[in-house]
Amino acid sequence: EDKVVQSPLSLVVHEGDTVTLNCSYEVTNFRSLLWYKQEKKAPTFLFMLTSSGIEKKSGRLSSILDKKELSSILNITATQTGDSAIYLCAAVPISSGSARQLTFGSGTQLTVLP
Amino acid sequence: GAVVSQHPSRVICKSGTSVKIECRSLDFQATTMFWYRQFPKQSLMLMATSNEGSKATYEQGVEKDKFLINHASLTLSTLTVTSAHPEDSSFYICSATEQGYEQYFGPGTRLTVT
């Protein structure tokens, strides 16, 4: 059974701090890893990682995949209160059909205090 | 960008009644739509995978007769919660994919059964 584990489950930091969120996976026929940010409604897409060792960056957020360690990290530098959210990672398997089911981790609840 | 809408965003119904939730892809044709359920402070749990024109594939433990899914067109899937009970109260989220690996999420529907 495919499994995705995130740590920590929750994290409280102050504005300006840097945080690192972890995601590890055990997925048969792994293809990609996705990171999402979820505030009050549905998740919004952050990154898709397919190749190991290549960092993806968007503003203060960056992420990298390590296929040897079966893991990924999401870094947020100079955190702001608006970064407070649940961060979800999800693994995508290779699929011969059109349906590519995601396996989600439990999420990391990040709270950034002013 | 790809936009997915859900309707209604919030619904309150009495125990024993049925509720229909719509999921629409607004600017692309969704060959596959997914339905998720999310309880407070928990991650998304996949309920079913829906391909246009065919029967939905349900995850283990999800009752097909209780959660009716119809994917009648490439832009619309519906989830009907039949004979709803208070334990069905949850946040229901759909996502849609064209042919790629990225899923676009709808804004979610908050269902409260009294």
Structural description of this entry:
The complex is a heterodimer of chains A (114) and B (114). Chain A is an all-beta fold and 114 residues long. Chain A has strands at 3-7, 10-14, 19-26, 30-38, 44-49, 56-58, 61-66, 71-76, 85-93, 103-104, 108-113. In chain A, strands 2, 4, 5, 9, 10 and 11 form a six-stranded mixed beta sheet that branches. Chain A has a five-stranded antiparallel beta sheet with strand order 1-3-8-7-6, with no helix packed on it. In chain A, strand 7 and strand 8 (71-76) form a beta hairpin. The mean pLDDT of chain A is 90. By secondary structure, chain B is mainly β. Helices cover 0% and strands 52% of the residues of chain B. Chain B has strands spanning 4-7, 10-13, 19-25, 32-38, 45-51, 57-58, 67-73, 76-81, 90-97, 104-105, 109-113. The relative contact order of chain B is 0.33. Classes of the chains: A mainly beta (114), B mainly beta (114).
Topology:
The complex is a heterodimer of chains A (114) and B (114).
Chain A lengths: L2 E5 L2 E5 L4 E8 L3 E9 L5 E6 L6 E3 L2 E6 L4 E6 L8 E9 L9 E2 L3 E6 L1
Parallel strand pairs in A: 2-11
Antiparallel strand pairs in A: 1-3, 3-8, 4-5, 4-9, 6-7, 7-8, 9-10, 9-11
Chain B lengths: L3 E4 L2 E4 L5 E7 L6 E7 L6 E7 L5 E2 L8 E7 L2 E6 L8 E8 L6 E2 L3 E5 L1
Parallel strand pairs in B: 2-11
Antiparallel strand pairs in B: 1-3, 3-8, 4-5, 4-9, 5-6, 7-8, 9-10, 9-11
